[in-house]
Each structure stands twice: as C-alpha cells, then as structure tokens.
Amino acid sequence: MSSSKRGAFIVIEGLDRSGKSTQASLLHDRLQDRQDAGATTPKVVLLKFPDRTTAIGKMIDAYLRSESELDDRAIHLLFSANRWELASTIVAHLAQGTTVLADRYAFSGIAFSARKGLSYEWCRAPEVGLPAPDLTLFLNISPDVAAARGGYGLERYEKEEVQKGVRRVFNKIGRAVQEEGEGKWVEIDAGKTKEEVAEELWKAVEPLASGVQGSISGLWEISLIPGRDTQGGT
C-alpha cells in the first residue's frame, strides 16, 4: 500500500434483521482472504456497535433486552458514549493503514432516537466529531420482510412500526450524508439472497480495499489526522 494512503472506514447500516452482522462478517473475511493471498490490501478489523463488552455497553445491553428502563435521552447519550469509547482506536487504525469495518454506527443512533420523537439536531449533536466513514452501506429491506426472518422480536426495537419509523429517518440521513459530503452512502437491496447482497457490497467496497487517499474527518467537522492533506500527503 502506498505510504500516501490510509485505511478505509466502512460502515454497514440498516434495519434490524437486514443481515448487517452476517454481511459485515463476510466482508471482513473476504478482505482478510485477499490479504492472506498477498493482495495489496491493508489489515482489517471489524467493530460492532453497540460494543456490549464495556461498562457502558453492558448498560445498553440490559436496556435492549428490556431488563432495565432508561430515559430516551439518557440511552441515546449512552449509545453515543459507547461509540466515543472507540473513536481514538478507529483513528489510530486508519492512520496505520488498517481498514475498519463497523457493524452499525452513529447513523443508527440518530435514526432510532429521532424515531422516538427526539429532535433530529439534538440526536446528531453528540456524534459531531466522531470519525466519519468513507463509505456507508445501507442494507435496505422492508420491515415486513425483516419481520419474517428468524429471531425477529427478541429485542426492544424489533417491532414493525418501530422499524418503519427508523427507516424514514435513515432515508433523511442518507440524503444529508450525500448533500453534506460526509463520505459516500450506498443503498443495497437486502431482500436478495445472502450471496447476491455480498456481491453488491463487494462492488462498492473493492475500490477502497487497498486504502484511500486523503484525511479522515470528524462527522460534520474537520480532519482528525494531522499532517494528511486532501491529496493524501504527509
């Protein structure tokens, strides 16, 4: 990989049961296999949000399992804090040339909280400055199809009416990402077979597989890696 390149930050978003975790794992393995085969592909790490292993993550886990109750604003801030716990790690990986895959990210936090009726701008505010993805892959699936998949309904938000509202906010976020230049937002039809979806994702990811030029910016902010200009120089 060229010294002027850094790792790519790729996020997979979507409704519950749209196949995010499955596709994130498949994509991670495909990138890893390319590296093992000697391709000019940087190292790759896979992160999942929320990270339920941290102290904050355990509080979130109990909430999602309906084992505890929290104010809507409080749980939104906990989700955001959970992402901030790993923000410096993400930046460090990218600066070292490692590709970072994330299964869910800030956009999910905004979508689920705004759907509850909280202000969109208020929901977005705690995310300002988080590392901005180079590519967000949104797995688009109708809530009724998602509801037919195994395991649906086991957690708090896995209800059709909730997912329909979340989908509307995701659509707003996708338009805003494109308009404001916060990386690239690509919609993928997640109603297809697992293999077909994986190929669609790969088409979008492959151009970034060997790293990207330019700085890694903060969401709705400025560069977070000093010394790297928009041409990838150091």
UniProtKB/TrEMBL annotation:
Pathway: Pyrimidine metabolism; dTTP biosynthesis. Keywords: ATP-binding, Kinase, Nucleotide biosynthesis, Nucleotide-binding, Transferase. The keyword Glycoprotein does not apply. InterPro entries: P-loop_NTPase, Thymidylate_kin-like_dom, Thymidylate_kinase. Signal peptide: none annotated. One of its GO terms (molecular function) is dTMP kinase activity. Its EC number is 2.7.4.9. Belongs to the thymidylate kinase family. This is Thymidylate kinase. It comes from Suillus subaureus.
